[in-house]
Structure formats: structure tokens, C-alpha cells
Sequence to fold (894 residues):
Amino acid sequence: MALAGFGTVIDGLRALPGPAEKDALLAGAFLRKGILLDAAGNYAGAKTCYAGALNSNPQIDSLSFVAQVDLGAIYYNLSRFDSANYFLLRAQTLVGRVNDEDDEVRLYNTLGVLYFDNGNYREARDFFDKALGLVKARKPLDVPFMVSLESNIATASFRLGQYQEALNTYRQLLGFRTYSNYVNMSMGNAYAGLNDYTAALAYYHRVDAKELPAVLNELAIIQEQLHRMDSCRWYLRQLQTAAKVNAGRVLVMDLGINAVIESEWLRDQGQYLPALSSLQKAIGIFSRNFHNTDIYTNPSDFTGTFADYRLFDALVEKAGDFRELYRSQPDKRYLQACFSSYTAALSLLRNIEKSYATDESKLFLKKKSGPVHAAALSVCLQLDRLYPDSGYKEQAFLISERSKASVITANLEEKAFTAGGAGQQLLQQVNNYKYNIARLNVRSETTTDSGQLAALTREKEGDELELSRLEHALEQNGEYYRLKYGDASPGIRDLQQGLESGQALISLYAADSVLHVWVVTRKGFSYLRIDSLAGLQREVERWLNALKTTGDGRRFRGDAVGNRLYTLLIRPIRAVTDAAEWIIVPDGFLYLLPWESLPADAGGAQRLVETTTISYRWSSRLLKTTAAAGNAGASGAAGTSDGSGAAGGGLARGILSFAPFAVSGASGADGPFSRLPASAEEIAGLPGAQYLDGQATKTQFLHTVDHYPIIHLATHAVSSPDNAAASFIAFYPAKHSPIEDRLYLEELYGLNLGATQLVIISACETGEGEVAAQEGVMSLARAFAYAGCASTINSLWKADDQATSFILRRFYIYLRAGETKARALQLAKLDYLKSDALDKSPAYWAHLVLTGDSGALYERGFWARWWWLVVVSGVGAGMLLGWWRLRMKKKSTI
Fold:
């Protein structure tokens, strides 16, 4: 009756004579009819009504807000995630301008579900928490809605690996006896994730399948895990029957999941081709505009797609099935189809990662997706063996490189983007929120008060939601959108053009039991496969242990290990390149290895530092950008009054240097920092601004950091390999508060150091940290790179401060003489080896490594540019003198 009544109102208003007018009564009738159709499961009809409500009401008011929230939810139920995201984000911009708390809660809950399906569990939880806070703030408490949101939060937490926390929440929610079907199914999912299938089945059986048909899929999965194949098939068929009987009750996405499970059932029976057909059906459901049933085809264009993470999983499963099919029936077409599916999956994955607003979410995604990159690379190289010279080797290299440092690359691209007016303001706000989130992370790590921690968590979630909103607002700029979602990356030829003669890019990728090595030079491209990855890792760990435990009277005892590392690692590379300069892109445990410390020959007579200039990169994708920036600075150099020829006007300002503990140690709020007597000597005479002891505060650093192209920090530092948020650089403890006196790693992420060309962190272990999948070491050095600094010199372990001071003082001499940063550091280390130092083992000089742009910062001065003329003149004068002496000798003989 209500439907009929609203229909009568709509028809009557639309039949009125005269031009069609926008009418709030008409919009209201559309909205209410849409809500009734929505509740009945008629999503297509509800969508038409909600759209009619929007079209009939151009006002920015509660009615249009509700219509956009409802339309977004309908598009979600129709699996049209792009449209859902569009309308929900439009509604989010109206929050605060309209007063409708009920639908504001629905907005945040629906956004949370949407982001959850995108695999973005962290941001999904932020949305759920925001909605829950609104619900709990109202009286009387809406218990069913609270239970629903608490369940969603627990599910997101479970996906983030917080299993016990999620289970505890579910148990509490069962006591409310509301939404028990959803809570019981979530409990079953949690126990299934923990491989406790008995408990999972017990909770699944408490769910009414008529009310929540999706539980039939979960029961099928458990039966498959228990190898009860008939039972698995029975539950699959039950859901398919339910969809035919009552199409509105079974969600389209559940049918896609059902098709995926059926494909697994078929694969277990050895029926690979039918399994692939079932997966193709699922891919068609999960995709936006792809409905090709041919198993050899894949969706290819994901630009602008708010993707379902399930689509990624389905493509990966499809690739795996083709790979298994090839193993059982070695038809090359199957292997090519496998690689095509992996290519589509990785393209989608890059798009998903770019849609995430926070770095935490991106890193979590990379951790989950690492095995997919490894599998795709392995298949690509397998195809190379079948089809040599078909470009597969180059494609394997690109798979490796595209996976590396993507978080750093995305941030640097965002920082490099320039937009006028409102766009620039948005960029500044994005940067401010990133810094605020970093500060909140630090404060959360340093508090033990549970109430304060909860308040900080809520504040952080609010900032993350605002950051997400700002990122989406920025995407309205077409140029920014193309930059962010573009999938272009430099190919082999691009990289070769960025290299100079005598340079070699050496890129490493550790996967399974293999170390893949690519060597790129200006005119060559080579691939090496080192199979003994586990043995190599053991030897590297022994080598690092020998380096770190030398000193205090203990001799360096790593020569035998070094010789083995030469055989395993250096000799194969030397066999394909004689380049005098190596630019190394490490991976995994190799991020912590200073290659210059290794032997350069079989007998260990020389080390690499004596034969090869070495620097490191986070990714080869950063090579061309930083090289271009460095070359631009050098070529545009202007001679200075002292003849040093500083590159660009900025270098004339000199160096910003800090030595907080030079004269004496100091005590902070939580302990003392010892004196570093060599730090004053280390920065003595450096041009620019110098801050020692009480002047070397964090406040002073933040005030002056963007005024100098070179920054030198001679201080204490802590790098935590288990908790990046606990890593920091120490300044003078003027305020006796850790958060005010230390510069934490996460705070560095929020700085803008795009004009900084070099940071020298002369402190212990600043290159150490947790190794993140394909992203590098979560170290202080990486944080400076993320903030936009072109290059860093940092220390990999605690080393002798006198040796460090000597090397860095010599480094500056060579740098100002016009040498590249990489060559200047090499020459400085060689000077140390030629000095009268008592211990010249690599433990004393190999800890300092250069990561990032290796180019020169200064033009060569007059004498450096004309050295060849001096040499030639000297040789000529010597020959003339020799000729004159010979002539005089002949005369005396006569």
C-alpha cells in the first residue's frame, strides 16, 4: 500500500502541466519509495528511485545527503564499486553541512564495508570506528547498530592479524542476542582463519541460512578443507538454488565467491579446464566492465576502478590453475595464459595500492602480495627459457622493479606535483595530516595510559579519514589523477639512457630459494640466477656479525666468509660487467650488506672499495628522476668567489650541521646520552650554520631544515628493527621530553625535503630497521628519502667515531673538488686505508653507505677542470729537461 501510495504521488506530480520543476515533495516520494524497494531487495528499482530523488532536489540539504548515501549503498549491493565510492564520497563532503546523524552513521559504515572489500582493512576500521563513536554518543543507545559495527571492527581487526582481540569482541557481542546470525558467522570465520575447523562449523551451524545465505559458502569452504568433497559440493549447490528461488536474498558478490569455491572443488578433482571456466565466471562478477567467458582473456584496464580485492584473488587463482595445468599437460599455451593472468593481477594490485590513503595500509597490502610477484617473475623466466629473445627476461626485470619502493615513489610523485590555488592548499593539508598522524603514532608508542591511548587512537582515526577525504578531493584534478594512477615505469632502454659509460645498475630480487640478479649498463643487459639463496643469506649474516663485533681489542675474523661471498656473489657479476661504478638496488637481507667491504678478487688481496665506486637505490624507478635532478644542478652551476663552483645557488649557502653532544653529554627525560667528542671535529670548518650542544635542538632543526641543501647530523640515534615508530635521531634534550627532543622516524615522513640534496646521518645504526616486503628497510635513511631528500649517507652499525670523523672530513674535501657523492665517499675511505690508523679492517670504514642520487653537487674548480693541462705541461717540461741534459752530456763526452 505504501509503495502504491508513493507511486501515485510521483505519477501525479510528474503529470502536472507546465515545465518540469524541481520539487522537494517529489524528491521525498522518490526517496521513500526507494527505501521500501531497497528493504525488499529490489535494488534496481531502488536505484532508479534514489536517482530520481537526487534529480528532483538540487538543494544541498538532508534529503540530498540521504539520497546519496542510499544510492552509494545500492551501488555497493549491485557490485558497482566505482559508482558506490563516487556517491558516498560526495555525501561525505556534506557532513557538517547537514544534520542527519542516522545517515551519517550509515555513510561511514558503508564506506567501511566498501574499503574492506578493497582489502584496505585499516581504513575500513577507521570508518567503522567513526560510525561507532556516533552511535555510542546518542541516547538511547541503538544496540543492534552498535553490535553490527563492533562486529565489523572485529572482522577488520582479524584480517589485520589481531585474532585474539577479534574473538574476544565476538564473544561479548553474542551476549546481546542481536544480529546473532552475523556475529556467529564472523566467529566461524575467525576460527576458520585459525584452522580450528570444528569450532568454525559449530558457529556456522548456528546461522540461519535463509536469513544469511552467504554462510553456505563458508560451510562449503570448511568441507573442502576437511576433504569432504561431496559435502562441499552440496553446500555450493544449496546457495545456487537459493539464488534461483529468491534472487533478491543472495548478493551478487556471494555468487562470485561461490564460483571461486566451486573452481577449487573442481581443481581438487583434477578438472582444471572446468575450474578455470568457473573462475572466469567469478572474474566476470567481480569486474566492472568485463564479461568475456573465454578463459584465455582477462580484464586489462583498471584505471579509475575502485576494485574489489576478490578480483585480484580470483586472477591469482586463475594463474595458479593454469600453472598446475601446464605441469600436468605441458602445453606452452597454458604457461602463457598463466603469465597473462598474473600480469592482469599485478596491474590491478598497483591500482588498488594507489587507492589507499595511508602508508600503513599500503605496506600491509605489499606484505600480502609479495608471493604473487615472486610467482609471476618465476613464470616469466620460465617462458624466457621456452622463448629466448622474446623479451620475457626484460619483463621479469620490470616485475621486480615495479614492486620495489612503490610507497616511496608514490609519495615523491605527490610531492613533485605542482598545483595552483586550491590544489596547492589541498596538497599542503595532505602533508599536514600525514605529519599529524606521524606525531600521534609516536605519542601512542610513548604512553602507557589506556585512556590516553584510546583518545590518541580516535584522534588518529579521525585524521586518517580526513586524509582519505583530501586525497579523493585531490583526485578531482585531472592532471594529478593521471599522475597518481598512471602505470608507466621506465623500461630497459630508458634506464640505459640514464646511465653513464662505466656505470652498471645491479638489481636484486630474492624469492623462494633463488636470488635473481639483473645487470644493466649503457649498452648491455644481463640476467644471473644464484640458486644458493639460503647459503648466501647465512654467509651475509656471518659477514655482518664479523663487521659488527670487531673493535675493543677484537680482530676482524671474516676473511674466510668474505672469500665465500666473493665466489657466490661478486665473481658472477664481475663475469658480466667490468663497470667501474655499481649502482645497487638490493632486496631482502641484502639491504643491510655494505658491498664495498667484500673482496674484489679470489685471494682477497683487494676489496671492492679499491676497485669499484658503489652507491645504493631503493628502486631503479628512482634512478632517472634523481639522476636528472642531480645533472641539472651540476650543469647549471655558477662559479663562486672561492672557485669551488657550487652547483646551483642553493649550495652557496653551505651545510646545516648539528652536534648536540660534542662538548658534553646530556640527560633527557628517560636517560643520558654520552658525549661524542669527535662530533665537533667532524663538523668543524664546514661552511654554513653549525649548532653545538644546547643550540642543537629539535626545534632549531625543524626551523632551519629546509634552508640548506646539505644537512649533517653528528649525534646519537636509535633504529629499532622491530618497531619503526621507536626509531629516532637525538637532539639536545632542552625540553626533557622525548617527543619534543627527538626526531622520530615517523615524523620524518611528514617533512618536505624536496630541496635537500644530501643528508649525512653520522650516528650509529641509522641504516638498520625492519625489512619490509619489496619496500626496503624501515630505517631513518628511508624516511629521509620518503620526505624527498635526494640522497643520504648513513651508518649500518656502531663504528669508531674517530674513523667516521676522518672519513667524512675527507668526503667533504673531495665533494667540493667536484667529485660525485659516490666517488667522494670511496676516495675518503681509500684515504683512511692509506692513513696511519691502527685498524683498517672494513669494520672501521664500511659502515658508511650512500643511498640515492650519486651525482656531483659542485662543479670542478679551475684546477680540477684544467688538471690535464698541468699534467701535460709537466710531462713536456720533463721531456725538454731530459733532452737538454742528454745534449749537455754528449758535449762533455766530446
DSSP finds 37 helices and 18 strands in the chain. The longest strand covers residues 503-511.
